[in-house]
Amino acid sequence: MLWPKIVSFALVSLCLARVHQAANQDSSASCPTGFSRVADKCLLVGAGWKNWFEGDRYCRTLNASLLSIRNQTEFNLINSYLPEFAAYELELWTSGNSLGDSQANYFWQSTGKEATYLPWATGEPKRASGDCLSLTANYTMEAGGEVVLGEHRLTVRNCTLWGTVICETQLTRYRTELCLNPNAFYEAQIPV
Ligand SMILES: *[C@@H]1O[C@H](CO)[C@@H](O)[C@H](O)[C@H]1NC(C)=O
Ligand SMILES: *[C@@H]1O[C@H](CO)[C@@H](O)[C@H](O)[C@H]1NC(C)=O
Ligand SMILES: *[C@@H]1O[C@H](CO)[C@@H](O)[C@H](O)[C@H]1NC(C)=O
Ligand SMILES: *[C@@H]1O[C@H](CO)[C@@H](O)[C@H](O)[C@H]1NC(C)=O
């Protein structure tokens, strides 16, 4: 009884070929637990206040680092994320700093790169204030005593001051494949 075996082998091969084709088109990305996807990275607003150094260490315990800002597209997306995830937080530490740089240039500690896009608040940078960059909300006090938060922009602050921490990490990209085993189909997620 060779024929049934050949037929079922052919069917399985056909099935595998289709599965392979389908799987190639199916790739997705996700953030670690607790992080939210913003632009093409994952952000997390830490609980409580920390100075810049404590914030840096805190993010590292999460396999992340303090926020960096690459360009205006990313900056706008971060600013639209903040009201939801950091409502009422006036000062948010980024990884930007000029620590130890004799030229007082600013670097993103998370990428190691010099900061080329720096969306300063009005009147900034006030270099004498310190060496660390925070995203500071522009707020106005309404007549009724209500505080209205505007956009967050970069200000220079003393690294030992307290602020809220934003950590960033990379998206994890997955390719989902269907695999056949003798008893069942199962899905495997393979980091790419
Ligand atoms: C950080 O990454 C290491 C190595 O990949 C892993 O063992 C650890 O569980 C991760 N920690 C967190 C908080 O995700
Ligand atoms: C700007 O940031 C966006 C969002 O993070 C990113 O997708 C894009 O590649 C960046 N553009 C440049 C020129 O770096
Ligand atoms: C706050 O925003 C207003 C309106 O855009 C602007 O005129 C003002 O200079 C800003 N203040 C600071 C501290 O950035
Ligand atoms: C930051 O604050 C500390 C403690 O108040 C102070 O000793 C230090 O001189 C300040 N640094 C700068 C750059 O202002």
Automatic annotation (TrEMBL):
It comes from Drosophila persimilis (Fruit fly). It comes from the Eukaryota. PROSITE patterns: C_TYPE_LECTIN_2. Residues 38-168 form the C-type lectin domain. The keyword Nucleotide-binding does not apply. The keyword Transmembrane helix does not apply. SUPFAM superfamilies: C-type lectin-like. This is GL16715. Residues 1-22 form the signal peptide. Keywords: Signal. CDD domains: CLECT. Transmembrane segments: none annotated.
